[in-house]
């Protein structure tokens, strides 16, 4: 808990653990292997102190975001938080992926017209990188 308080995020503890795995993998001679971890719900806010190793990928999840608005819409509280989270991770990490769900959890069997959302996510991420 002290680590998370100092880091300002639960991602602090998680990232320290992931970094230790990344270090062990690299020391074992697997220099071309990357370790993938999530910035997901309670770990979505980047830590203030700990920085991901160069062989760590941070996968930022969009599960809490609003699909009724553009991800770049500053008036949408949920999507502006995504932008802030992405910017804070981008400041400390070069390997960021997006993790997006492709279903409507209110209606699993119904169609979920998400192709336009994928295009917007890709355009948004490219625009702020």
What's this, in brief?
This protein is α/β, with parallel strands linked by helices and 129 residues long.
Commentary on this structure:
With 129 residues, the chain is α/β, with parallel strands linked by helices. The chain has helices at 2-7, 11-27, 77-90, 115-128, and strands at 35-39, 56-61, 96-99. The chain has a three-stranded parallel sheet with strand order 1-2-3. 21% of the residues are buried.
Q: How many distinct helices?
A: 4
**Helix/strand class:** alpha/beta
Average residue-wise pLDDT: 87
Beta-strand residue percentage: 5-15%
Order of helices and strands: HHEEHEH
Q: Uncertain segments of ≥5 residues (pLDDT<50)? A: none
Query: Roughly how many Å apart are the termini?
Result: 32 Å
Q: How much helix, percentage-wise, in residues?
A: 25-40%
- Please give the order of strands in the largest beta sheet: 1-2-3
Radius of gyration: 16 Å
Shape: globular
Sheet having the most strands: 3 strands, parallel
Tell how many strands the DSSP assignment holds: 3
The number of distinct structural domains comes to 1
Describe this protein with a few key phrases:
three-stranded parallel β-sheet; 4 helices; 129 residues; globular; alpha/beta; 40% helix; 12% strand
Topology at a glance:
Elements: H1 2-7, H2 11-27, E1 35-39, E2 56-61, H3 77-90, E3 96-99, H4 115-128
Parallel strand pairs: 1-2, 2-3
């Amino acid at each position: 808990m002290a680590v998370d308080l100092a880091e300002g995020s639960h991602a602090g503890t998680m990232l320290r653990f992931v970094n230790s795995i990344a270090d062990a993998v690299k020391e074992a001679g697997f220099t071309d292997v990357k370790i993938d971890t999530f910035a997901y719900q309670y770990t979505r806010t980047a830590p203030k102190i700990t920085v991901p190793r160069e062989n760590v990928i941070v996968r930022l999840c969009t599960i809490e975001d609003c699909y009724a608005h553009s991800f770049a819409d500053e008036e949408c509280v949920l999507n502006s938080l995504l932008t802030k989270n992405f910017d804070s991770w981008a400041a400390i990490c070069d390997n960021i992926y997006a993790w997006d769900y492709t279903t409507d959890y209110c209606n699993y069997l119904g169609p979920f017209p998400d192709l336009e959302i994928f295009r917007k996510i890709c355009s948004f991420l490219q625009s702020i990188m």
